[in-house]
Write a structure and sequence with these properties.
The chain is α+β, with helices and mostly antiparallel strands. It contains ten helices and 20 strands. Helix content is about 35%, strand content about 20%.
Length: about 400
């Protein structure tokens, strides 16, 4: 592959601006208008499965279906607040006294129940109020202990495992969801562009990670999608490593994996930069990873352009993997090629060897992030978010920070 190198590093004014207050007002309105349809689709699934209600505990799902928001990590202290039931005609949201005002404000269409450490005691009456005899349960997220207590509390109510029902719904993105993911991408793009002049020999991974976080938070992000990874030289061979007090030295790669959060929706990008002029080996690895990423994106775009069926997540992964395998680095690429993103950083659809053979959904948003990792030496990953919409004939990158070779402190 021919080397592609930027003539100059990107500047913040090259990238789309952060969202405005008017944008946020429009997104809130779009969510309110979308929730009845989201609930109707879930209720159709209940009818198909011959169950009377759905019991959920996942914070992303309660936000998607009701509007009630728990901040990152808040679910660990909220108890059963934020758990919910969807019946044929009613939505019930659990909220103890700490969250009652917020729940009434954010989920005005739900019946708020003050459940506080007594769910199993309240369970029979809650089931009776919904006329529920068979209940679908978020089996991937409800603990075994909770399941056993609820089963014992109402022996006449059958609990039915329901893994991934709402997650499959969330994989198909509404326009206002994709716009928020794109906005989160822009905030992250801007932050890395602003950081580039500060990257120099001697600065530590941790200092750069903290600075990048600061630039995202002050550049429009409501929060982080996940903790910032900044990994230099041999540490870049750890796909999910953490920044340390290691100083950047000349001749190393410098890998950033990070994302912003806007109105609940997340971005995720990885860029591998070069500190000083790259070696021929490192440059070849970078170009190989770029070629593998392009193979997956181009393959999906071609299917949309020609009207062919979309590839499955497994097939999309195979396009990138074939490029890396052919270059003799198959053993250096162990993770999947991508994942869906939205209210959670990792969600459906999956692009990997263990993904299903079902075609990718549409419209949807996912990452494409192949990598090559040489233990003890270096690693390269390039990650962009891609939005596809078959009906609109669209396959676009939402990540706009350049993918060409970027050399810093040269």
């Amino acid at each position: 592959m021919t080397e592609s190198r930027l003539d100059r590093p990107p500047r913040p004014d090259d990238i789309a601006p952060a969202p405005t207050a008017a944008d946020r007002t429009a997104w809130a309105r779009a969510d309110r208008m979308a929730r009845p349809t989201r609930l109707a689709r879930l209720r159709e699934r209940l009818l198909e499965a011959d169950v009377d209600a759905y019991f959920g505990v996942r914070s992303e799902n309660v936000r998607y279906l009701t509007g009630f928001i728990l901040g990152d990590g808040e679910d660990r202290v909220a108890g059963s607040s934020g758990w919910f039931l969807v019946g044929s005609n009613e939505v019930v949201l659990f909220a103890d006294s700490r969250y009652a005002i917020q729940a009434a404000r954010e989920a005005p269409g739900a019946r708020i129940e003050p459940v506080y450490g007594d769910l199993e005691k309240r369970w029979p009456e809650l089931m009776a109020s919904l006329g529920a005899r068979r209940v679908a349960v978020e089996a991937d997220h409800v603990s075994h202990g909770t399941w056993e207590k609820l089963a014992a509390a109402a022996p006449d109510v059958e609990l039915v495992p329901a893994a991934g029902w709402v997650e499959a719904q969330r994989a198909v993105k509404e326009p206002a969801e994709t716009v928020r993911i794109a906005a989160a991408c822009s905030v992250a793009d801007l932050a890395l562009a602003a950081l580039l002049p500060e990257i120099r020999v001697g600065v530590t991974e941790r200092e750069l990670a903290f600075r990048l976080e600061w630039l995202m938070r002050t550049g429009g992000a409501d929060g982080l999608a996940f903790d910032v990874a900044c990994l230099a030289g041999p540490e870049a061979a750890l796909p999910h490593g953490s920044p340390g007090d290691r100083a950047v030295t000349r001749g190393q790669v410098l890998l950033f994996d990070f994302g912003a959060q806007i109105d609940g929706y997340r971005s995720d990008m990885t860029r591998t930069l070069f500190v000083g002029e790259p070696s021929a080996r490192d440059l070849a690895i970078y170009e190989l990873v770029a070629e593998a990423q392009a193979s997956t994106i181009d393959g999906i775009a071609a299917a949309i352009r020609t009207g062919a069926a979309l590839p499955s997540g497994r097939a999309a992964d195979g396009l990138a993997r074939a490029v890396i395998n052919a270059a003799g680095h198959g053993g250096h690429f162990g993770h999947g090629t991508g994942h869906g993103i939205g209210l959670a950083t990792h969600e459906l659809p999956s692009l990997g060897r263990m993904a299903t053979d079902e075609p990718l959904p549409s419209p949807t948003v996912f990452s494409v992030e192949p990598g090559v990792y040489l233990d003890g030496e270096m690693g390269v990953r390039i990650e962009d978010l891609v939005a596809i919409d078959v009906a609109a004939g669209r396959c676009i990158r939402l990540t706009n920070f350049p993918r060409e070779v970027v050399v810093v402190d040269g």
